[in-house]
Amino acid sequence: MINRRQFIKNSTYTAGAVATYPIKVTASRHQTSAEFFGVHEFIENNPEAVFIMKTDVDSKTNDEAKKQTGLEFGRSVIVPKENGIPVTSLIPIKPNLTNINRSGSPKDNIEYRMGIVTDPIFVEGMIESLKELGISGDQISMIETWNLGNWDPIGFTGVAERTGTHMNDTGETKVANLSKDKIQWIDVPEGVWFRKIPYIWPINAQDTWLLNISKFKTHGMGVTLCCKNIQGTICHDYQEHCSRYDSSMNISADHMNPNAKEDIWENYQRRLAEGVPRWDKPGSNGGIWMETWGSRCLDNNSVTQAGLHIVEGIYGRDGDGFLNGPNKGDLKDNEAWDYMTNIIIFGKNQYNVDIIGHWLAGHEPGNFGLFHMAIDRGYTSKLNPFDIPVYEWIDGQATLTPLDEFNRTTLQTYYLQRNYDGQDEPYFHLCDEPYDYPALTGVDSQESALPKTCVLHQNSPNPFNPNTSIEYTIPGNGQVRIEVFNMSGQLVDVLTDSYKVNGTHMAVWNTNSHAAGLYMYRLRFRDFTETKKMMLLK
Q1: Cα distance between residue 318 and residue 218, in whole Å
Q2: Predicted TM-score (pTM) of this structure
Q3: Does residue 331 share a domain with residue 216?
């Protein structure tokens, strides 16, 4: 594959020896016959679902555990395929990065002075999992439009050096000062604000596969997860989505909707009439600000396709995403705190991922206007988190799980504080007021869409080596047993023997020391039994 340009590797690293984080050695997944990769087929087949992997990291400074988590997550979610994304593709990774408070810090500790970011060691583990697929480090780049100089103390410079990957070389250089080969222009013909957006190459270029890895944290726009994270794939000054309605962005008039401000005002007034929560906050930092930011965000998301949207939540932060928050600490009375939340949230639909992320952070997603705006523009059909299928992801196996079985961590935000019309809501708060979720016209609720019959699907891949997935659907709650037999009828493995809820599930057969050959697998649920064949290759 011929790259459009050569990435410029950052050669400025922290002085002294670079730390290494050993990982558990396992057999490489790379096979000479595997020319493609992609997201696990069960995730691809359930694009509206959200998956949650619980992690077990004891401290945010435990680099070995974080890297192992990233490695195991990548191995189970991004897999070799017979058809899919060519292993020759470029892989841009968009982590969440934030600027460092370089002055006025209450102490010199770099960890305290910087905003929270996607954990770089988790990302390192994911990169190693991609390299096991036959993707070279030279194909992988970490992209962020905000201040390249911050990458070293945050830890991403070391990740790039250890993995042989590239880093964003545009820094905060404005579009007008960038060479053409560092920009990927994309048309946004139906954009409310934009008509054309410049992306940091290779974002949105051909033969690329974007990984959107956000952070579990709060901010002025709420719980700022996947939808907001890819804002940082855009070149300066076009990425200034958070500028307010009464300010201007330093972009070419030819690249804007000529009626942008009128359209945004009209949409804002309509949503006011519809009663979108908190949209009635007056002033330039009120509902019109969110309408403006959300319009730009949705324009961007409408043309930026990611292979997978991920919220890294090994630990999360409340407050403003930087230093200030709702907690009384040793250094000041308004500290932002980090919490060992130990979850990875992911899926194909960034809006559904973010809705579940908001709920897990203690908020009612219906209280956030961005999701109302996305529904209005036809980008999603969900608002109620309990209408979204949620699966717990354990060792590459998905189990449909009621949302309220997952722990919530309350992360307070300063999103549209109700300090008007006699209200005295604290600056940092939860948007947890009960929301009466309406039935969306023409959209089936999860309950009405529940299956009515048992279905056992053919395993995939088939033939396979060493692992294969078996998808099945049950029309009610109850005990499910999936067994594997050899062709002599001998039971060789039990993949599932547990209580499951109504819906679609997945089992995985890790073949271990089983010999090559033809096998049978059988689903048993209530009085339903079905058997299919599969072929293990060695």
Answers
A1: 5
A2: 0.87
A3: yes
